[in-house]
Amino acid sequence: MNDTIRRLLLMTFLSVVFFGCLEVRKEPYLIFPGDNTQMEVHWQLNSTQSCLLEWGEDTAYALGNVITTENSSDPGQHLHAYTIAGLTPGRKYHYRVTVNSLQYTGSFNAAPPEEATTLKFLAYGDTRSSPHIHNSVAGAMISAYSVDPAFQTVVLAVGDLVTDGDNEWLWDMEFFSIANPNIRELMANVPVISAMGNHERSGTLFIKYFPYPFETHRYWAFEYGPALFIMIDQYVDYHNGSEQFLWLQNELAQTDRPWIFIFLHEPGWSAGIHSNDATVQIDIQPLCETYGVDIVFGGHNHNYARAVVNGVQHVTTGGGGAPLYVPDPGFPNIVAVSESHHFCKVEIADDSLLTFTAETPEGMEIDSFTIAK
Q1: Can you tell me the distance from the alpha carbon of 4 to that of 2, in angstroms, rounded to the nearest whole number?
Q2: Is the pTM value of this prediction over 0.85?
Q3: What does the alpha-carbon distance between residue 165 and residue 314 come to, in Å, rounded to a whole number?
Q4: Percent of the chain at pLDDT above 90?
Q5: Is 227 in a helix, a strand, or coil?
Q6: Which one, out of 95, 139, 227, 346, has a CA that is 20 to 30 A from the CA of 249?
Q7: Residue 7 — very low, low, confident or very high, per pLDDT cuts 50/70/90?
Q8: Could you tell me whether strands 259-263 and 227-231 are parallel, antiparallel, or unpaired per DSSP bridges?
Q9: For 255-268, what is the mean pLDDT?
């Protein structure tokens, strides 16, 4: 019996044991709704009951409170969600969820004001298959914002969050695993914003647990301080002339943000083992060059790789927990590779300088570069 099968059997056993006796199925986690005066708190129970959500600028939670009931549009799913509104952009807040005698706490920074010129954020992807490895990567990201609180903003992901996105128990035992406290702590204190991956399958459960303010399908964009973030859905048409392509072109043409980042799953330029995505190369890359996209983030290949194409940085960050692939540095336009689990740190110092670093959970730097406008 190999290690993967052994872990899956163990997770199945734990799901039966824990979810049969715990009141909370998915502990509270954050979703950024695209508005710098709001933050959403989501969680899931194992039965129908009400909860208390409190929030404030410190752990006295004096700003507000509400009794929540489960989402009536998903009967039997016991989903709870509440949008905390009226936030001051850039300010830190604390919250607490009480479920009978259980209490769960977290904090977050409201998104920065529109005029902000500095920003720090984290990125990673392909967390599926090995939640214990994902847990170590999450722990390193927690350390990053604990050392530098300016990183407690958003975590951007490139998809493949679980092995089979249409399998409910895999969401319980991989991405929302109660046995991996770093993952839970990260999601309770920083909103994770993910693109759609191929392992999310139909996307039904992806949308259920991550109800971002999507456009027609599972793509959307949001401005965050000095940056525009665009989340592409490669599992509906995005060729030149398609609805999604025209939407993307309009988002790029309309923004006044000096920094632009695209997140998708299957990269246009990577270091294998999957082939490079031709639509990204033929249709998306020209838009990147025309409108000044700074970095295109992808995953799919379980390694780290960076390509530079006509001044556009293409970063493959597929080292969040999935089994690693050996990168091929001979793929076109590749300038850096690493067969390692990792995450990425992006620091925008002002309107003219960006610093990028990719690190392993152990703190080893595997790549870095700067972009000067």
Answers
A1: 6
A2: yes
A3: 26
A4: 91
A5: strand
A6: 346
A7: low
A8: parallel
A9: 98
Partners of residue 139 on adjacent β-strands = none
Q: Are 26 and 70 contacting, i.e. CB atoms less than 8 angstroms apart? A: no
What is the C-alpha separation between 109 and 91, in angstroms, rounded? Answer: 6
* Token duo for residue 252: 């790029």
Residue 317 contacts residue 123 (beta carbons within 8 Å): yes
Q: Any idea what the Cα angle at residue 200 is, between residues 123 and 108, rounded to 5°?
A: 40
CA dihedral 74, 76, 78, 79 (to 10 degrees): -20
Q: In whole angstroms, what is the distance from residue 139 CA to residue 162 CA? A: 18
Tokens describing residue 156: 């951007």
SS3 assignment for 130-198: CHHHHHHHHHHHHHHHHHCHHHCCCEEECCCCCCCCCCHHHHHHHHCCCCCHHHHHHHHHCCEEECCCH
pLDDT tens-digit map of 105-135: 999 999 999 999 999 999 999 999 999 999 9
d(C-alpha 84, C-alpha 38), whole Å? 6
Ramachandran angles phi, psi of 263, nearest 5°: -120, 130
Q: In the block, which residue shows the tokens 């991405």? A: 175
- And the tokens for 97? 């969820």
Tokens of 234: 């490669």
Express each pLDDT in 222-241 by its tens digit: 999 999 999 999 999 999 99
